[in-house]
Amino acid sequence: MTNLSWLIPVLPLLGFLLIALFAKSLPKTLVGLIASGTVLGSFIIAVSIFLQNDGTAHTVKLFDWISSGKLHIPFAFLIDPLSLVMLLVVTGVGFLIHVYSVGYMSHDERFAQFMSYLNLFVFFMLLLVMGNNYIVMFTGWEGVGLCSYLLIGFWFKNTDYNNAAKKAFIMNRIGDLGFILGVLLIWVTFGSVNYSEVFSGAEGFTKGDKVITAITFLLFIGAMGKSAQIPLYTWLPDAMAGPTPVSALIHAATMVTAGVYMIARSNILYTLSPDTLNFVLFIGLGTAIFAATIGLFQNDIKKVLAYSTVSQLGFMFIALGTGAYTAGVFHLMTHAFFKALLFLGAGSVIHAMSGEQDIKNMGGLRKHLPITYIVFLLATVAISGIPPFSGFFSKDEILAHLYAHSPVLWGFALLASMLTAFYMFRLFFLTFWGGFRGTKHQLEHLHESPLVMTAPLMVLAVLSVLGGFLNVPEIFGGNLALKNFLSPVFEASELRSFDPHIGHQTEIMLMAIAVGMAGISIFLAYSRYVANNEVPSGDEKEMSWLEKLVFNKYYVDEAYDAAIVKPLNWISRKSEIFIEKQLIDGTVEGSANFTLHLGGLLRQLQTGHIGFYLIAMVLAVVAIFGYTVLF
Amino acid sequence: MNALISLSVLGIVAMLSEIFNFKKFLYSLILLGLVAAIGVNVMEWGQFQLWYGMMIVDEFTLAFSGVILLTGFLWFLLVADNHQDKAHISDHFAISLFAMAGAIVMVSYNNLSMLFLGIEIVSISMYIMASTQKNDLGSNEAGFKYFLMGAFATGFILFGTALLYGATATFDIQKIGVFVTEHNSELPAIFYAGLILIMVGMAFKISAVPFHWWAPDVYTGSPTLITAFMATIVKTAAFAAFLRLFITCFSGVELFWNQTIMIMAGATILLGNITALLQNDFKRILAFSSVAHAGYMLLAVLAMNNQSGGSLLFYLLAYSISSLSAFAVLLAVANLKGNTNVQSFKGLAKKNPFLAFVVIVAMLSLAGIPPTAGFFAKYYIFTAAIANNYVGLTLVAITGSIVSIFYYFRIVIVMFEGDESTEVTVGSNTKALLVICSVLVILLGLMPDFLIGLLK
């Protein structure tokens, strides 16, 4: 079955080509079938490979891609437990979102183009997670960036959406520069970019080696861009301009977790560099808290979810930073389930509200959207970390590792987790409880979404509820199935890093505190938004300066604008005038004009008179004789 | 040698067709004959023959004969749509075939008398062909100008040949070469005088500055079909002859002539390109561009190493097929609009995207931009020249080719301007020619290795 693994990325690529080339002649139903069917096919192959896998790594080489001097890059795939987990998440969640999109986008005139982009995205995402070397990963890495750009700006007639797409692309490019520098340094250091050779080569390095630190740091800059961490996170909230399925697939479940996957994949390098790991930990922790506080004051349903995604990604990096790679991947997986569900549920709400995204104008929707209401509730509970929902297990594992690392940092992470519960339930209550605050027109049109949209919601809801049981900790009599499955990938790192062990009693106490705090947050949200019927006004005049600061997202966008964008624009305007127009154009056009003028003079030599021609020739012969005699 | 025989037989058949009244089949017969000639030429590859010391068949001969035959075949494809004078068709065909036979003699001579014979066969045919449009004043003027100045140049060649014979007592170029190496330090003054005169004569034939004066006027005045013949087949033969003469006879006294040719090459490149800038007639632009290309090709002669032959061969083929497709489109446009002005190409891209594409490919190749044959043609010639330390001249050549982009792209820009209501029609033979040329140009640009390896 492993031999068929090349089909996994090829199927969505075929789907993309078919739809993109024959967009005009294919009926909508067929487009939907092709787009979803190809991803389903990939999912089925991935599942069958998964069922046969015994924990060993297989390399499937397709062809020699680049061969130049000492550089040999094969186009090959690596099938091991880590890539299998990612494959299942990408194709599984991807398939559900494709199905959902068929319903969600059915009224869009560029439906076929949208589905083809989604297929192309899945193709690149699969390259990213399947490649057996950093260059194939980078190809996927850039490809998903391109698809993200295309899909954020899918409704390109809106200038704001286009700007959001450009912002996402540019922020990612900053990170990508770090990534490619890291890959180059890997090649210089190890003479190869293949994972197997790099990681076996890394065994010769001691812990804390400067080159390894530089490599891991550069790679992490790439992860900062792709996975929206401080300071490169500002593009992700703006990326919500894209259609909601895009937010679910690309900007929640898969692409933004590429950074987490990349670090988990490079775990051997990262374990060798405690400095970078600490840096990752602090960035992750900072992002988790920072984004969560912004989430408290947002009134756009998708913006809240976007900041929540940034914050949850921060949690994943906390896990990686403490060396708990399994916990990071575990949270990546459960997050993919419940965050995709939240976004798709939000999509269902937006669909019902005729495009309304402001939760100030919602309320009381549980009566009108019963299915959406239930699944959204399940996902909210899951992300808030209430047992036995999936988010509880994965987040608890991260917190436990962090506590073993440093109790003080654990306190901060706990705060972020509390904030999460609060803003998620705030969103939930404002949307589904209380009375309806929208217009009459919207009220008349309220309707539950069709089955093609609600069916994926229900599947994701089941996963969000039960996903946590994939890795039940020992104290609950669990067998840590995911940890054992992934252990071939992370074994070497675990041998090198010390295992901070905490007692069962401490672990239970930590869990109790976390759940208790979440409970308090939920209660606070309930009392404020249900019992007191409070609705955020969105009016800045009524806010205290601190609220205003957070409401305006700490003015980070404005600060970047003032510190980087404006000076850069100033420099380019000045250089356009002085360097481009005067210096370069002056020189270039000057020499061109001179040459043209010369052409005008020289063409007059061609008089057409034979007499002149003959005399010129004779004179030339005389000159040649003279020249050779004299010299 | 078989190619020469087939061409001569074809020429005689063309003349007989008038008498035996099978003019109807003549055109198809010639195309078949040319294919057969290419075939026998290829079959001969790897052989070496010396015909009584007069003619030589070696890889150099066969490779350049191949280029001449291929270009000749493509040129005859162009004839179908553009030959107006139906009454004299057999004469015209016979003359062009004999001109090609002369061109083959020019690439396979081993004796200065044969060189002279070849040059005269080609030249006299061309004087006639240039003036075939009897009612056109320009055509008459071109033929007459070409004849007068050509006779002048032939005088130089003959005089030079005589002086060389006086110094070395032989017409055999290999013996001259041996004589030069044996008496390197004690060569008589008449030898050097002969060398200069023969060099001047040959420089005229390849239209190198300052002996290029005839080229722009004759190219512009002649019927466009004939201009295409002159710019490709005649140029190929003249350059092959030039290179063989200098490599065989004069490589021993390289230091005597290399500075003169260096100055000539630089002047040709600069003058050809710069004068082309402000021309408004596409035919005249191609004429000056042909002058400029002669300058680049002189670099291969200067290189005087084992890359000279291969790079010149590649350059001539790339240049010939690119020029032929440019001339073919020019003919089609001129047939419709009645003039060869650049402005006649307005709106071509919209109405005839295929023709516009062909022109773009040809212009890219002539300007030397990858992935076309013209890029590697320049690349090989420049590397050959740099291998012999002509760095400064190569820089001049590169500057010249930058200048050339201006006028090559001017035509491309014009094609995308404005709207044109009438569509330019081209016959199936011309279409075949355009497809073959464009495919070859791109193919040679993508896989240049096999051709460049032919001559070492």
In terms of topology, how is this protein built?
The complex is a heterodimer of chains A (631) and B (456).
Chain A: H1 7-21, H2 28-52, E1 58-68, E2 71-79, H3 81-104, H4 111-130, H5 134-152, H6 159-190, H7 195-202, H8 210-226, H9 235-238, H10 244-253, H11 258-265, H12 267-271, H13 274-295, H14 301-321, H15 325-352, H16 370-384, H17 390-405, H18 407-432, H19 440-445, H20 451-466, H21 481-496, H22 504-531, H23 545-551, H24 556-602, H25 610-630
Antiparallel strand pairs in A: 1-2
Helix pairs in contact in A: 1-2, 1-4, 2-3, 2-4, 3-4, 3-10, 3-15, 3-20, 4-5, 5-6, 5-10, 6-8, 8-11, 8-13, 10-15, 13-14, 13-18, 14-15, 14-17, 14-18, 15-16, 15-17, 15-20, 15-21, 16-18, 16-20, 17-18, 17-22, 18-22
Chain B: H1 2-20, H2 23-43, E1 49-51, E2 55-57, H3 59-82, H4 89-108, H5 112-130, H6 137-168, H7 173-182, H8 189-205, H9 214-221, H10 224-248, H11 254-276, H12 282-303, H13 308-337, H14 348-351, H15 353-367, H16 373-387, H17 391-415, H18 428-446, H19 449-452
Antiparallel strand pairs in B: 1-2
Question: How far from one another are the termini of chain B?
Answer: 21 Å
Strand content of chain B: under 5%
Indicate the radius of gyration of chain B in whole angstroms.
21 Å
Number of domains of chain B: 2
Instruction: Give the quaternary arrangement of the chains.
Output: heterodimer
